[in-house]
Amino acid sequence: MYLHRVAIPGRRKDFFDERFKAMQIRIIAFLGLIFAAYSGQSHAGIVLSRAALNGTDFVDWGTLGPAELQPNVPNPSAFTSNGGIDGFVSVTTGDPVGRRDQDIANVQHFWSGNFNPGDHLLWTATDKSGPNSVMMVLAFGSQGITRGGAQIQPSYTGAEFVARISAFDSNDVLLGTYTRLGVSNEGYDNSAIFLGVEGLGIIHRIEFSLDSAPGGNTGGFAINQFDFSAAATAVPEPSSLALYGIGAAGLFIATARQRRNTPPVSV
């Protein structure tokens, strides 16, 4: 007794045609799964506007105290975001930092710059010089964030400057660092450059600094409201879920077709 395939006229060509079609369906389904996975990811790198960052939470520096002419904020200081996320902010000088508010045009008192009038600012309160001589550090503990950014301006006006933002993971490994050219002036017009990051993974620490500044005073600068999105368990978007479903259905159909069209075996 032995096993052999029964020759059925015209069936062999149909069998290979079906196998080819099943392979095509599998390839399309596989590509669909890859595209679904990719579509759920955000583009990594620098973000140049608050609207583009599209954060879900923010830190208002006004919660650290009123605006004062003298540095009045302990260094470091704990903060709580609008959404209840806790963190710490510090400046590498180790000295107290300043709370300032952006002035209204022609009313110079706290900060005569180009943030939006009334913005609550956090200021490094130093005149140190040299590239990246002072860094403002925002730490977000064990939870981390997925994106974040703020507007930034040097203490002195009247010239261009280069600002830098750097992101680190929980092991202090650099995830990315980016720079942007800006102009520091007394415009009172919300033209201060925005500098943010996204798509780098889970960020546990953000550092702001200046590569260059008017008069070489790279240590003195301020940032306004810090917008961010807290890290959370990833949930695929509806479009991604649909693509996953299409891909899985394609694989199921291909397998079912192959089983249905496999020639019978006779003894």
What does this molecule look like?
The chain is α+β, with helices and mostly antiparallel strands and 267 residues long. It has two domains: 7-40 and 239-266; 45-230, Jelly Rolls. It contains three helices and 16 strands. It has helices at 11-39, 50-53, 238-261, and strands spanning 4-5, 45-47, 57-59, 77-80, 86-91, 98-101, 120-123, 136-139, 145-154, 159-168, 174-184, 194-203, 205-212, 221-223, 226-230, 265-266. Strands 2, 3, 6, 7, 9, 12, 14 and 15 form an eight-stranded antiparallel beta sheet that branches. A hairpin with a 5-residue loop joins β10 (159-168) and β11 (174-184). α1 (11-39) packs antiparallel against α3 (238-261). The radius of gyration is 29 Å and the shape is globular. The chain starts with a strand and ends with a strand.
